[in-house]
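Objective 1.3, modelling of assemblies. Example input:
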Amino acid sequence: MAELAGKSAPNSRAQFRNISVSQIAQYRLPLAGLVSIAHRVSGALLFLVGLPFLLYLFQQSITSEVSFESYRATVSGVFPRLVLLALIWAYLHHFCAGIRYLLLDLHVGIEKEQARTSASVVFGVSLALTVVVALKLFGAF
Amino acid sequence: MAQQRIVVGAHYGLKDWLAQRITAVVMAVYTVVLLVSLMFLPELNYGTWAGLFASPWMKVLTLLALAALMWHAWIGVRDIFMDYIKPTGVRLFLQVASIVALAGYAWWAVIILWRV
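Predicted structure (tokens):
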């Protein structure tokens, strides 16, 4: 690996070794890598925001008839709906990517091409469902 | 420093790896059960929503899914801290804070569920 580091690559793609924070934006991850980091980001979001916010909404929605009405008032606001949408994306991505990882653990689709395809399926399904939920949340149907 | 303790190896972390997958399956199954139950409700209002969680089997399933969630979240955030937080003291503080938060959320969820 050491002899690779100094030389310029045969093609013109940038070479990275032990990248620093400032280089993250330029680093082009493969699709499976994007699924991986989005899995981590969505998990962190669900832990930091999802757990307290959804427990709060669950409490409001289920404690009594009166609190149910205040729950409806809470989720009618634009900002709470945007937070909900972000959490729903996080859940959908974490769910789809998680199923992909479980299948990979069972040695299903571990070839490079199949893994690339399943990574694009994860993004396709989770983002499409997020768009459907967004349309529903903001009253398109 | 006569001896160095071995902290890595083929079986190190296997239990957590397995727990992460089993708890994931439990939560995925619960997600499907909850969505299907919601679809079978004649209409969605306070009565039907609270009625869903009033049944004992739904309480038990929800509690099981919540236990899986707390365990899963703990392994997940611990992995993130192990990867990015290098100073031992800061990492320990964050890990303890996460355990306290998760235990608190679990207790809160039980209180909510048993009021229904």
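The CA atoms of residues 16 and 75 of chain B lie 7 Å apart.
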